[in-house]
């Protein structure tokens, strides 16, 4: 209603001030509704500008009235727009605060993970050092094992020599016992003729070995080995 009354006032002023086209304005303005009147006035103003003619006082007053109406409309909308923007800013502030809290939590988690990672690095370094020590110990054990294996081979060879020597010694002992049995005429038919103990001297590998032989029935057992 306010806009309509302003338009009628502008129309009356335009009717009173216009000298070039008073009848034309009087004929066209009353026939149009307010919205159509605004559109018509805008078109007239554009036509006036395009033809490079000066505006009449009524047309200028109408243009000012339209601008005032637009300004008033913007003023009326301003509180709602301010409220909307305030709500948006409030929501944005809340989102920023939430994001800051999330960022703080992420920073704490990152620091925690970095601390755990540092501990893991120390543990890995300790394991590497222990692994290097283990390698050194393994190399030492391998070397020691090689030395012991060489000694074992030497002992095995010596054992073979000893076994061969024992076998030859056994053969000499068997031969000596056989000779001794023949000398004393010991047979299975006369076990009572076996002497209780004899000492036999034999030659073995260029050395004299004293062997004590204890006779029991027809079996002979070695009681002592001089080596």
Automatic annotation (TrEMBL):
Keyword check for Coiled coil: yes
Keyword terms, alphabetized: Coiled coil
Domain of life: Eukaryota
Organism: Dovyalis caffra
Residue ranges the record marks as coiled coil: 82-130
Start-end of Basic and acidic residues biased regions: 9-29
Sequence segments annotated as region (Disordered): 1-29
Protein name, UniProt field: Uncharacterized protein
